[in-house]
């Protein structure tokens, strides 16, 4: 079955109106599978002062919410599907980045796989990446050569007891980020978090973005 056509442009929930975005850092926030852009409502005040958050709705309706890509199991995107969404997001970002001083991407769960797909595809489009409770999109045709993310500040946060994301994908993600990616990696583990995001984690993300 083919995917429904994506909207011409993403639906975006902006944290501030257009006149207040000039000269601000932009965080592009990507929600989890089956959720929507409301997942990150209220995030901006918990990030560095003056940050603009663009919470983007994924293009594929699913389970009362939306998904970024079709997959062949949790954390395993179909190559043509994640590529299609990546091109759609990059087209939008080209129109959205102009007034901002820098652009970071933040993704949770399925949104982490999508954010990871974006930085693997075009790492120089971003000044930092925040990857939460998920996996990179392995075996989806994206480049993952050694040094691919050279110098890119990357925050990776999770709970080692998260049972939603397959352990083999998490292990593969960690091994690559630590040893092969070339990223300036900040890794944090939050015992008891499960598959979610905590206030402490968001405070750590704020500190990370302040330094990045």
What can you tell me about this protein's structure?
Keywords: Hydrolase. One of its GO terms (molecular function) is hydrolase activity. It comes from Kitasatospora setae (strain ATCC 33774 / DSM 43861 / JCM 3304 / KCC A-0304 / NBRC 14216 / KM-6054). The mean pLDDT is 96. The strands form two sheets. The protein has a seven-stranded mixed β-sheet, sandwiched between helices. The chain has a two-stranded antiparallel sheet with strand order 4-5. It is globular. It has 212 residues and is α/β, with parallel strands linked by helices. The chain has one domain (12-211): Rossmann fold, CATH 3.40.50.1820. 26% of the residues lie in helices and 20% in strands. α1 (79-96) crosses α2 (110-121).
Number of strands: 9
Radius of gyration: 16 Å
CATH level-4 homologous superfamily: Alpha/Beta hydrolase fold, catalytic domain
Query: What spatial order of strands do you see in the largest sheet?
Result: 1-3-2-6-7-8-9
- What number of structural domains do the residues give? 1
Q: What fold name stands as the CATH topology? A: Rossmann fold
Can you name the CATH architecture?
3-Layer(aba) Sandwich
The helix-and-strand class reads: alpha/beta
The fraction of residues assigned to DSSP E strands is 15-25%
Which geometry do the CA atoms define? globular
Overall average residue pLDDT = 96
Q: What order do the helices and strands follow?
A: EEEEEHEHEEHEH
CATH class: Alpha Beta
Helix percentage range: 25-40%
Pfam family, one: Abhydrolase_2
Family: Belongs to the AB hydrolase superfamily. AB hydrolase 2 family.
Keywords: Hydrolase
GO molecular function, one term: hydrolase activity
